[in-house]
Design a protein that fits this description.
By secondary structure, the chain is α+β, with helices and mostly antiparallel strands. About 20% of the residues lie in helices and about 45% in strands. Strands 1-2-3-4 form a 4-stranded antiparallel β-sheet, with helices on one face. Strands 5-6 form a two-stranded antiparallel sheet. It is globular.
């Protein structure tokens, strides 16, 4: 497993968007992981996405990076731990 480190965390409250994180995976830094939590659901982490407007006026989102399921789960665990510490002083969220 690559060395994973949460470098920066920005907590916010904008609807279901709860924040952004920058993560270092080995020697690569990836910015703009989103922390998302909808009402009555557990929080999750979404890798950076590219928004593409469609002809019908809707928007479609495509991943900028793709992580293996194992790596994605570990990044999510670490980012949510950092978010919990920062936003809730360690309290459950």
């Amino acid at each position: 497993m690559a060395n994973i480190e949460v470098l920066k965390l920005k907590v916010m409250q904008k609807g279901s968007l709860k924040g952004f994180a920058s993560v270092r995976l080995g020697g690569v830094t990836i910015h703009d992981f989103r922390i998302v939590q909808q009402d009555n659901q557990d929080a999750w982490v979404s890798p950076p996405q590219k928004e593409v407007p469609m002809q019908d006026g809707k928007k479609k989102y495509y991943p900028v990076v793709e992580l293996s399921d194992t790596l994605k789960a570990e990044v999510q665990r670490l980012v949510l731990e950092a978010y919990k510490r920062e936003a809730f002083d360690g309290r459950d969220f």
